Amino acid sequence: MTIVDAVAEPLPRAVIDLGTLRHNVAHLTRLIAPAQTMLAVKADAYGHGLIPVAEAGLAAGATSLAVLEIPAGLVLRHAGVTVPILAWLHGQATDWRAGIESDIELGVSAVWQLEAIAAAGADRPAIVHLKVDTGLSRNGATREEWPGLVQAALELEERGVVRIRAAWSHLADASIADDEAALAEFRDAVAEAEALGAQFEALHLAASSAGIRMPEARFSFVRFGIAAYGFSPFDDSTGAELGLIPAMRLEAPVTEVHVGGTTQVRLAIGWADGVPTLGIAKTSIQLNGRRCPVIAVEADTMLVDAGAHRVEVGDTAILFGPGTDGEPTAEKYADWAETIADEMVTGVAARVPRVYVN
């Protein structure tokens, strides 16, 4: 076996098509009208890049943004984003005052969070979304805790410490029956809160799954996450079947070509860059318009079998992309690796450069 050529310091890259992302957001926004789109940009916009994705999504029709933590909301504010931003994952070290004074709207699921907001000493009322747990158990007040949470928020609203904007929850998306039961639970919780005196400006329950298939759960707005990035939230349909196109293409250059009984090619990307090692026997990539099976995935490189096809150092391999030219999609790669597309795109390491087009 002979090494034909090699290059130094090659880099993989994740190409983010912002035009495609705008297409997805506009498509979903039309689907759910008159409800509005809250674009979820958690986890650095599912690995696509927080600020470019936020700007593209807002340009395409989203009217608000969802992050997990206040610091991500502050990054958006410092970048000049002025639309409503919701943050709901809080800990004991949360800088409540910074969030409140930057108009970050706060998802609140426990009385201790309201107490921390009151103790923060902000110079304006905190805008809060009260969360009830309807079965996902990710966070949110239980139905037993819910009246106490609402009452505590109402007392702080009387004092001018908070402004109650919304009631909300997450669906488990386990089955249609489960989601319908959770929807009924949510309606009951809202009615209970209103009986206590709460006046909600907005209600929100649906994310990608229910936003697409459960119109009765859309309420004021839908929190679109993975669907906005081009992927299906369902097991029984692909993103393409829903009119969505993946916005990320993960590619890597060829660094070595070994010619022998078959041509083996080394690519400058590995598990340290987020390439799964599970399911290698089923995995293939696209190289020069042809699918090539993966032989091995190492820390910084991977080896593929190009068969008898001609390959040169510097050629570009596509691990996954929109699938329009025959390359695997992240959904397909996720099937091979026994995971989900969310993990594939979010798992692309930060050291892999993001390149933006359109």
Distance between the termini: 42 Å
Helix content: 25-40%
Order of helices and strands: EEHEHHEHEHEHEHEHEHEEEEEEEHHE
Structural class: alpha/beta
Instruction: Report the sheet-strand fraction.
Output: 25-35%
Average pLDDT number: 93
Strand order of the largest sheet: 9-8-7-6-5-4-3-10
Shape: elongated
The major β-sheet equals: 8 strands, parallel
Please count the beta strands (DSSP E, at least 2 residues each). 17
User: Segments where pLDDT lies below 50 for 5+ residues?
Assistant: 1-8
Output the radius of gyration: 23 Å
Helices, by number, come to 11
What does this structure look like?
The protein is elongated. It has 358 residues and is an alpha/beta fold. The protein has an 8-stranded parallel beta sheet. It has helices spanning 18-32, 42-46, 50-59, 70-78, 96-101, 111-119, 146-158, 176-195, 208-213, 330-336, 341-346, and strands spanning 2-6, 13-17, 36-40, 64-67, 85-87, 104-108, 126-131, 162-168, 202-204, 221-224, 248-259, 263-267, 284-287, 290-297, 302-307, 316-320, 354-357.
Helix-strand blueprint:
Blueprint: E1 2-6, E2 13-17, H1 18-32, E3 36-40, H2 42-46, H3 50-59, E4 64-67, H4 70-78, E5 85-87, H5 96-101, E6 104-108, H6 111-119, E7 126-131, H7 146-158, E8 162-168, H8 176-195, E9 202-204, H9 208-213, E10 221-224, E11 248-259, E12 263-267, E13 284-287, E14 290-297, E15 302-307, E16 316-320, H10 330-336, H11 341-346, E17 354-357
Summarize the structure.
By secondary structure, this protein is an alpha/beta fold. It is built from eleven helices and 17 strands. α1 (18-32) packs across α3.
